[in-house]
Amino acid sequence: MPEGVLFFYLRDMFYIAAIIGSIVFLPSIALNIALALGAPLGMYAMNGRHKVVPQEVRKAFILPIIMQFVALFTILSAGHVLPETIPFGIVRILAFFYAVYLTFYTATVFFSLSAQERHVMGPLAIASTICFWIVAFGTLSLE
Fold first, then answer.
1. d(CA 93, CA 76)
2. Minimal CB count within 10 Å: which of 71, 95, 102, 122?
3. Looking at the whole model, is its pTM more than 0.90?
């Protein structure tokens, strides 16, 4: 396979992984927003500790929601789905940061006491983590 063809193949693979990763990551963002607004979906988060997250705990969801939107922006920027708005070196660092972060998050999901969290959020966490790692490693070869 000629070198130019391989470059385009890899670029397309990272692009597709970024799109799939962002789509699979969206339910996690939606869940956190719903939990922060008081939806009775607590069995899918925090070990299923609360069916409805208590009012005083809901404020704690603001930072994770912001982080998830930054992660979404990062995977789409690193996969060259979005135009470059911040230096690519920063995007590369963020891509690896979120890949590592999601790896640990995925482990915690699979050790959750809530079966709903393990069975619903677990596969989504695995898929998004794999996509984040693919795109993060893609930042090493593409600029």
1. 14
2. 122
3. no
